[in-house]
Task: inverse folding
């Protein structure tokens, strides 16, 4: 049986841990002391479009034995600290699957975990952690993207399918990361800048929608990934009006937001002058943070 570790069982990590355990996976979650203790004592409680699932998985604040696959599902800004919980020596030969926003985490993980095989992957799912060990998949979709440049990518794709996710493969790392970010950046920045779900956000800032979408697509193009801006905008407008990005939820909850991983990736790809709409949205979000 494949031994699966999940570093960061929050919204996304908790949903993936529950889905994999429900499918029969041997799962260990690695989290902060309070979260690890809550899951060890009370188990995982998952609610999703298929119903509910309750079960027990191993929970620890430190990884103490090797795993075959480690899913990394922390917030981008928490990655460096979280890696202290999973010693690199235990991951030699392991497959590491980061499900983080942005693009910078991939080379960082490969540098920090030189003995591991890091697979480029992404997940699109609206997930919420209500409290430690209690997670909900709010959306009806759980879409996983995987780079299949090697056998490790194919192995993770199969596991994700067994967990009930819809899997899309790509022939290279950049395509996986920018397919997601070119959509996520407009969704996150528009909703957080407006401090509103996607429906009201689109209506309140019609001047910002097309430029911010175009900049995300141009950033992807800078990495050799072709994205259709019309397709992104159409997808944004097809979302449920009440859908909130994780950035909006974090902003409204007074938590740190992944502004550098999301907006920063676009700005770094195009330069400050090449991404005025992204810069403007990021500036609005920073001002909202400063006011709270």
Result:
């Amino acid at each position: 049986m494949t031994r699966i570790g999940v570093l960061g069982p929050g919204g996304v990590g908790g949903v993936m841990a529950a889905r994999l355990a429900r499918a029969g996976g041997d799962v260990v979650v690695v989290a902060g002391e309070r979260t690890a203790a809550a899951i060890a004592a009370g188990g995982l409680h998952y609610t999703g479009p298929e119903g509910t699932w309750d079960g027990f998985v191993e929970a620890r604040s430190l990884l103490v034995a090797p795993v075959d696959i480690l899913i990394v599902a922390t917030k981008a800004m928490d990655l460096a600290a979280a890696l202290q919980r999973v010693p690199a020596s235990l991951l030699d030969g392991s497959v590491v699957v980061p499900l983080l926003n942005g693009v910078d985490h991939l080379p960082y993980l490969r540098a920090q975990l030189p003995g591991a095989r890091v697979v480029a992957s992404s997940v699109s799912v609206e997930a919420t952690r209500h409290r430690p060990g209690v997670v909900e998949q709010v959306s009806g979709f759980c879409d996983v993207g995987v780079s299949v440049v090697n056998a490790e990518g194919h192995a993770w794709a199969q596991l994700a399918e067994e967990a009930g996710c819809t899997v899309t493969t790509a022939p290279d790392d950049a395509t996986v990361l920018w397919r997601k970010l070119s959509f996520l950046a407009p969704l996150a920045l528009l909703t957080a800048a407006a401090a509103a779900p996607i429906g009201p956000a689109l209506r309140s800032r019609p001047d910002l929608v097309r430029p911010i979408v175009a900049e995300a697509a141009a950033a992807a193009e800078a990495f050799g990934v072709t994205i259709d801006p019309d397709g992104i905008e159409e997808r944004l407008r097809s979302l449920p009006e009440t859908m909130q990005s994780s950035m909006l939820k974090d902003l409204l909850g007074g938590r740190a937001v992944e502004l550098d991983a999301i907006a920063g990736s676009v700005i770094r790809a195009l330069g400050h002058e090449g991404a005025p709409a992204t810069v403007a949205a990021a500036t609005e979000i920073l001002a909202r943070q400063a006011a709270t």
